[in-house]
């Protein structure tokens, strides 16, 4: 899809996205910068991406007429959130290039299939996931209770629809496990052994239709209450050997399924001396990821630029990070003062600090736990970025 082109019928080269959240918004911005028109399919009238797109098709994700309109408007289509019905991508793929494919999105949507994929490429990737067992039936639950004491304490996670720590219960005993499974609705789950994490990191990979692969260096992530809070993106954010292993593993995980698009692979770093060799693969997201937002301000090509390039069949530049960066997520909590009253954060003070880049997603209402925006701090060296990050955190707390 040639950027900025207009066909004989006068139609502009248009890229489409299923989903209207903040990832879709930043995708739209990247596509528009290259001269593309954009179309967003999203039921919400006030969505972050719908508000900034040339076209907003306001239907459900699986609405046949909405999908037909999206295919009609666009030369290529992507997705921005992983719980989009894989069937919708399948339908679109009948007439348009869709990246990532319904098949890989389907794998990433189901922890059971996702772990099977990680196991299938373990020999090449050199990483395994945490020890786990599938709990889909009462018989499986009983078998795990009887024979998998090694998985306790553990985390019971729903196979589908989990995000930001939702759909997870921590369990210490077999009784707690049974109660947790009931609490989660007795749906398909995995019980994962609780690992002693020393850190978490993630790697963004972009792979084109022709198999060309580029990647970003691993970023180190700090989660609070299961939600990403801070991303550290600079040299020395983790031991170099571990970073190399994570990056290579993520690339092989993308290659092994013939992935096309931007993929984020999340890893746990565990205490040394375990059987895992220090690195464990956790999950993958078939799209740009919150932990890659710093690439907008700290790299010469962002994860959203690469998403556009992959789907449109443009060459993939190997991105270069030109500044150390720290990204702070801005949850709705920041909009409330200590007595619980709504109060606009002190952006004036924040933006007077050097190297602060504020991104707000245009969400109408701030709610605790809701991702309202993020703030990236860049600077000439790690120490000055850290200093500013502490001051920003102080202003926003
Ligand atoms: P989500 O889909 O909600 O991101 P994750 O599986 O990534 O779910 O879990 C969210 C967070 O919970 C992780 O980032 C990590 O901090 C913690 N966590 C998840 N699984 C484990 C585990 N097996 N051992 C220790 N901590 C874990
Ligand atoms: Mg996660």
Automatic annotation (TrEMBL):
<feature type="binding site">
    <location>
        <begin position="192"/>
        <end position="195"/>
    </location>
    <ligand>
        <name>ATP</name>
    </ligand>
</feature>
<feature type="binding site">
    <location>
        <position position="223"/>
    </location>
    <ligand>
        <name>ATP</name>
    </ligand>
</feature>
<feature type="binding site">
    <location>
        <begin position="282"/>
        <end position="283"/>
    </location>
    <ligand>
        <name>ATP</name>
    </ligand>
</feature>
<feature type="binding site">
    <location>
        <position position="157"/>
    </location>
    <ligand>
        <name>ATP</name>
    </ligand>
</feature>
<comment type="similarity">
    <text>Belongs to the PurK/PurT family.</text>
</comment>
<dbReference type="InterPro" id="IPR054350">
    <property type="entry name" value="PurT/PurK_preATP-grasp"/>
</dbReference>
<feature type="domain" description="ATP-grasp">
    <location>
        <begin position="119"/>
        <end position="312"/>
    </location>
</feature>
<keyword id="KW-0547">Nucleotide-binding</keyword>
<dbReference type="InterPro" id="IPR040686">
    <property type="entry name" value="PurK_C"/>
</dbReference>
<dbReference type="Pfam" id="PF17769">
    <property type="entry name" value="PurK_C"/>
</dbReference>
<dbReference type="Pfam" id="PF22660">
    <property type="entry name" value="RS_preATP-grasp-like"/>
</dbReference>
<feature type="binding site">
    <location>
        <position position="200"/>
    </location>
    <ligand>
        <name>ATP</name>
    </ligand>
</feature>
<dbReference type="InterPro" id="IPR005875">
    <property type="entry name" value="PurK"/>
</dbReference>
<keyword id="KW-0436">Ligase</keyword>
<dbReference type="InterPro" id="IPR003135">
    <property type="entry name" value="ATP-grasp_carboxylate-amine"/>
</dbReference>
<comment type="function">
    <text>Catalyzes the ATP-dependent conversion of 5-aminoimidazole ribonucleotide (AIR) and HCO(3)(-) to N5-carboxyaminoimidazole ribonucleotide (N5-CAIR).</text>
</comment>
<dbReference type="GO" id="GO:0005829">
    <property type="term" value="C:cytosol"/>
</dbReference>
<feature type="binding site">
    <location>
        <begin position="162"/>
        <end position="168"/>
    </location>
    <ligand>
        <name>ATP</name>
    </ligand>
</feature>
<keyword id="KW-0067">ATP-binding</keyword>
<dbReference type="InterPro" id="IPR011054">
    <property type="entry name" value="Rudment_hybrid_motif"/>
</dbReference>
<dbReference type="GO" id="GO:0004638">
    <property type="term" value="F:phosphoribosylaminoimidazole carboxylase activity"/>
</dbReference>
<dbReference type="GO" id="GO:0006189">
    <property type="term" value="P:'de novo' IMP biosynthetic process"/>
</dbReference>
<dbReference type="Pfam" id="PF02222">
    <property type="entry name" value="ATP-grasp"/>
</dbReference>
<dbReference type="GO" id="GO:0046872">
    <property type="term" value="F:metal ion binding"/>
</dbReference>
<dbReference type="GO" id="GO:0005524">
    <property type="term" value="F:ATP binding"/>
</dbReference>
<dbReference type="InterPro" id="IPR011761">
    <property type="entry name" value="ATP-grasp"/>
</dbReference>
<dbReference type="InterPro" id="IPR016185">
    <property type="entry name" value="PreATP-grasp_dom_sf"/>
</dbReference>
<keyword id="KW-0658">Purine biosynthesis</keyword>
<feature type="binding site">
    <location>
        <position position="111"/>
    </location>
    <ligand>
        <name>ATP</name>
    </ligand>
</feature>
<protein>
    <recommendedName>
        <fullName>N5-carboxyaminoimidazole ribonucleotide synthase</fullName>
        <ecNumber>6.3.4.18</ecNumber>
    </recommendedName>
</protein>
<dbReference type="InterPro" id="IPR013815">
    <property type="entry name" value="ATP_grasp_subdomain_1"/>
</dbReference>
<comment type="subunit">
    <text>Homodimer.</text>
</comment>
<comment type="pathway">
    <text>Purine metabolism; IMP biosynthesis via de novo pathway; 5-amino-1-(5-phospho-D-ribosyl)imidazole-4-carboxylate from 5-amino-1-(5-phospho-D-ribosyl)imidazole (N5-CAIR route): step 1/2.</text>
</comment>
<dbReference type="GO" id="GO:0034028">
    <property type="term" value="F:5-(carboxyamino)imidazole ribonucleotide synthase activity"/>
</dbReference>
<comment type="function">
    <text>Catalyzes the ATP-dependent conversion of 5-aminoimidazole ribonucleotide (AIR) and HCO(3)- to N5-carboxyaminoimidazole ribonucleotide (N5-CAIR).</text>
</comment>
């Amino acid at each position: 899809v040639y950027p900025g082109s207009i066909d004989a019928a006068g139609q502009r080269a248009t890229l489409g996205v299923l989903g209207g959240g903040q990832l879709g918004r930043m995708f739209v911005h990247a596509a528009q910068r290259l001269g593309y028109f954009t179309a967003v399919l999203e039921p919400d009238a006030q969505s972050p991406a719908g508000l900034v797109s040339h076209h907003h098709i306001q239907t459900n994700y699986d609405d046949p007429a909405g999908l037909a309109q999206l295919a009609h408007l666009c030369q290529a289509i992507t997705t921005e959130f992983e719980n989009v019905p894989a069937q919708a991508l399948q339908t679109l793929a009948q007439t348009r290039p869709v990246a990532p494919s319904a098949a890989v999105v389907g794998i990433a949507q189901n922890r059971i299939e996702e772990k099977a994929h990680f196991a299938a490429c373990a020999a090449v990737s050199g990483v395994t996931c945490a020890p786990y067992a599938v709990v889909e039936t009462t018989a499986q639950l009983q078998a795990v209770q009887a024979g998998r004491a090694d998985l306790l304490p553990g985390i019971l996670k729903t196979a589908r629809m989990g995000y930001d720590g939702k759909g997870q219960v921590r369990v210490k005993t077999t009784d707690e496990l049974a109660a947790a499974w009931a609490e989660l609705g007795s749906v398909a789950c995995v019980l994962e052994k609780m690992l002693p994490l020393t850190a978490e990191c993630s790697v963004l990979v972009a792979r084109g239709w022709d198999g060309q692969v580029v990647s970003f260096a691993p970023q180190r992530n700090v989660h609070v209450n299961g939600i990403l809070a801070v991303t550290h993106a600079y040299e020395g954010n983790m031991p170099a050997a571990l970073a190399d292993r994570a990056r290579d593993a993520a690339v092989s995980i993308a290659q092994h399924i013939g992935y096309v698009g931007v993929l984020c692979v999340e890893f746990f770093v565990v205490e040394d001396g375990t059987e895992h060799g220090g690195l464990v693969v956790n999950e993958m997201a078939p799209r740009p990821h919150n932990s890659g937002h710093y690439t907008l301000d700290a790299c010469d090509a962002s994860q959203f630029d690469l998403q556009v390039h992959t789907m449109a069949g443009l060459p993939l530049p190997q991105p270069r990070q030109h500044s150390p960066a720290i990204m702070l997520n801005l949850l709705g909590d920041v909009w409330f003062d200590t007595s619980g009253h709504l109060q606009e954060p002190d952006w004036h003070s924040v933006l007077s600090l050097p190297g602060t880049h504020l991104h707000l997603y245009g969400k109408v209402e701030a709610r605790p736990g809701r991702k309202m925006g993020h703030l990236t701090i860049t600077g000439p060296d790690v120490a000055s970025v850290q200093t500013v990050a502490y001051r920003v955190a102080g202003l926003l707390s």
